[in-house]
């Protein structure tokens, strides 16, 4: 049987059969990802890359000077003269100038029109450091007694290349500015000994190392740029989501305010609407019964009866609208008291018996034994039962049956069930009949008089009592309305006798 939890039904009927638009979303996301990965799109982050380069220079400002100091200490112990100390002071001073430039930029900030200027300044600073390493290639130590000093110089320069490639990856041209001159000077100095295979190997290693570390710096630069692009896109999406969420919240707030204003207006119209209706009902009843004297024209008597019947229908409609409006406005108050569902169900069956017998419909009570008292509002429970039974009587054909069940739930709560043998409700129409003023195709086809507010009022009253309302139906087999109440509302130790014992477990 088709079923629907009442909590999922709203006044706005949602077509749940419609598939989500995942395909369109996938296309949009793929397009955004492709735009981010385009090489042309990653050159819009020069400002961020320049700041990253600045931060890297400040954080690692002591890395290469410490390496230079270690080389000096080793060189002094190896027998170098004071020329290596002069070189170290010169080289550290050049790196100090580069660090001061970075700190100045961090302090003053960077305008968009100054990006190109500072890129040139940084490249010039790295070129100044290349003078120190060019000077290093000229160092020699005849007193050291080793022929491997050119190899040591090449290894040191390659090591510093690697460090610079990592530190200065945000400004990839820095590796060329800092080491093109030292590699050139080393090559020129080694030219006179190019027949020496060791010297030739060192030159090839330096040239290959410069090209390799430039490629490494380029790859790192592109990775950082793509990361920045993804971050910017994420920030933009977050901003759009926050804007959409704010607009949605504002729209929902306005809708809730409008709905609340409507509900308050209807709830406050009780006296204004009922007073003239009572006059219409009273006067039409007096006229129809000819209390003040006979009416000569029989048609007028029929008109008076029609006016009275229409007035009663309109009064019932107004009462239901006002009840639903008070519930929505939060002004529907309930008076909780201990009661037996079986007693109320028996009373409601007695009240509906006459209407059911007129259609040759049998009302069959099925009450479980040992029912305890439930804390609830008696008027609301009675209205729930009467609405469900009235619906069942309305749509059950002659010689049909209506089963009214009261029993225990598996969780220790209690339930009320009204099941008929009527035509049933198509599954797709269950959300409609649970919405305000909603009527199914069978009701429309049979021209059944009704407001379409009975079930919405029932589910609202059940929810006020912390319960759940479910509707089960299958075409040509009937419909079952089930209202359950939680265990917390059952009063333990207050077992009472039932009004009409009939022992049958609900399906």
Describe this structure in words.
The chain has 507 residues and is an alpha+beta fold. The protein has 15 helices and nine strands. It has helices spanning 22-37, 46-59, 63-78, 83-108, 115-138, 149-167, 174-191, 197-267, 270-288, 298-328, 341-358, 378-395, 430-433, 441-445, 454-464, and strands at 2-5, 336-339, 362-367, 372-377, 401-408, 414-420, 468-474, 478-485, 490-495.
Mean of the pLDDT scores? 80
Largest sheet: 6 strands, mixed
Q: What percentage of amino acids are in beta strands?
A: 5-15%
Helical coverage, percent range? 55-70%
Tally of strands: 9
Structural class: alpha+beta
Can you list the strand order of the major beta sheet?
1-7-8-6-5-3
How would you describe the shape?
rod-shaped
H/E series, N to C? EHHHHHHHHHHEHEEHEEHHHEEE
Q: Name the poorly predicted regions.
A: 1-22, 36-43, 494-507
How many helices? The count is 15
In whole angstroms, the N-to-C terminal distance is: 13 Å
Radius of gyration: 45 Å
Secondary structure topology:
Blueprint: E1 2-5, H1 22-37, H2 46-59, H3 63-78, H4 83-108, H5 115-138, H6 149-167, H7 174-191, H8 197-267, H9 270-288, H10 298-328, E2 336-339, H11 341-358, E3 362-367, E4 372-377, H12 378-395, E5 401-408, E6 414-420, H13 430-433, H14 441-445, H15 454-464, E7 468-474, E8 478-485, E9 490-495
Parallel strand pairs: 3-5
Antiparallel strand pairs: 1-7, 2-4, 4-9, 5-6, 6-8, 7-8
Helix pairs in contact: 2-4, 3-4, 4-5, 5-7, 6-7, 6-8, 7-8, 8-10, 9-10, 10-15, 11-12, 12-15
